[in-house]
């Protein structure tokens, strides 16, 4: 056996020995990492549900697919809903320090639900609400939610904190002009006027499919809501080739400005879809 052949045989033998001893450790380590990640997500869900139940005296469900466990950064994010109101989806951020610090916007979404439902009557609609700067250490975060209290009683509490109100819609795009579209625009205008009247600051953003048929509008709307509810990211980016948006600054509106005029000037995509 020449030197070259001997060298090749020895190299192969060394590689085999390394694989025999090291590969099982790598596989075990990878398995443990996977199990740790899976366990951590399950654990974060359970602890968040326990925290919410203790805080509010209600039962909650964390949406499984939304748990994002960032062990390196000491942070978990997820979405949840109260079991008696599955459409009230809200965000939870958990900071892992010596003690877990929970930041969530349940009170905000639960408080706004009744008024949005009462005004946005020409459906379907989906909506969620957040603080514009997501500053959960502000005084607004401390507002208690009381089921028997009307939403109107909470209006004054939100004057000092700019809000981000997100409304998701679909539109009738065939056989226009359409009375349902006109009613929907009137709903949105009534909401803006109410918020403006009560000095609620911030912005309202409309998200809507850009599909060109009624059937496609329904499909894209359902896909849009499914993504919004179930994505791991806190503020889900929507597919810009499927969904457009139109944002209204609540401070910019007054009695002399109609939403129709605003849409015509500022939101050409919505104007083309809705009118």
Order of helices and strands: HEEEEEHEEHEHEHH
Could you report the average pLDDT, rounded to the nearest whole number? 80
The shape, in one word, is globular
The number of helical segments is 6
Tell me roughly what share of residues is in helical segments. 40-55%
Strand content: 15-25%
Uncertain segments of ≥5 residues (pLDDT<50)? 25-36
Instruction: Round the Cα radius of gyration to an integer and report it.
Output: 26 Å
Helix/sheet category = alpha+beta
What distance lies between the first and last C-alpha atoms, to the nearest angstrom?
87 Å
List the helices and strands and how they pair.
Blueprint: H1 3-56, E1 60-62, E2 68-70, E3 75-82, E4 90-96, E5 100-104, H2 106-119, E6 125-131, E7 163-169, H3 179-197, E8 202-209, H4 214-230, E9 243-249, H5 259-266, H6 268-274
Parallel strand pairs: 7-8
Antiparallel strand pairs: 1-3, 2-3, 3-4, 4-5, 6-7, 8-9
Would you give an account of this structure?
- This protein is of the alpha+beta class.
- Helix content is 43%, strand content 20%.
- It is built from six helices and nine strands.
- It has helices at 3-56, 106-119, 179-197, 214-230, 259-266, 268-274, and strands at 60-62, 68-70, 75-82, 90-96, 100-104, 125-131, 163-169, 202-209, 243-249.
- β4 and β5 (100-104) form a beta hairpin.
- The protein is globular and about 55 Å long.
- Residues 25-36 have low confidence and may be disordered.
């Amino acid at each position: 056996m020449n030197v070259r052949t001997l060298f090749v045989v020895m190299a192969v033998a060394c590689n085999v020995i390394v694989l025999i001893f090291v590969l099982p450790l790598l596989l075990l380590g990878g398995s443990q990492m996977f199990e740790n990640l899976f366990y951590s997500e399950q654990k974060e869900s359970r602890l968040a549900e326990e925290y919410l139940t203790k805080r509010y005296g209600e039962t909650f469900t964390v949406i499984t697919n939304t748990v994002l466990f960032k062990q390196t950064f000491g942070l978990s994010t997820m979405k949840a809903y109260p079991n008696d109101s599955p459409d009230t989806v809200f965000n939870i951020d958990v900071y892992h320090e010596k003690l877990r610090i929970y930041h969530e916007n349940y009170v905000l979404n639960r408080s706004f639900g009744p008024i949005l439902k009462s005004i946005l009557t020409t459906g379907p609609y989906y909506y969620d609400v957040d603080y514009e700067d997501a500053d959960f250490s502000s005084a607004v975060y401390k507002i208690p939610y009381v089921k028997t209290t009307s939403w109107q009683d909470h209006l004054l509490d939100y004057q000092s904190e700019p809000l981000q109100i997100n409304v998701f819609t679909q539109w009738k795009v065939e056989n226009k002009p359409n009375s349902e579209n006109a009613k929907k625009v009137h709903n949105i205008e009534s909401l803006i006027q109410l918020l403006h009247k009560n000095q609620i600051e911030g912005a309202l953003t409309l998200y809507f499919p850009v599909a060109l048929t009624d059937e496609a509008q329904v499909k894209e709307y359902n896909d849009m809501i499914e993504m919004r509810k179930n994505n791991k990211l806190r503020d889900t980016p929507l597919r810009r080739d499927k969904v457009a948006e139109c944002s209204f600054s609540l401070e910019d509106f007054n009695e002399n400005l109609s939403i129709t005029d605003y849409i015509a000037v500022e939101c050409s995509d919505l104007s083309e879809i809705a009118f």
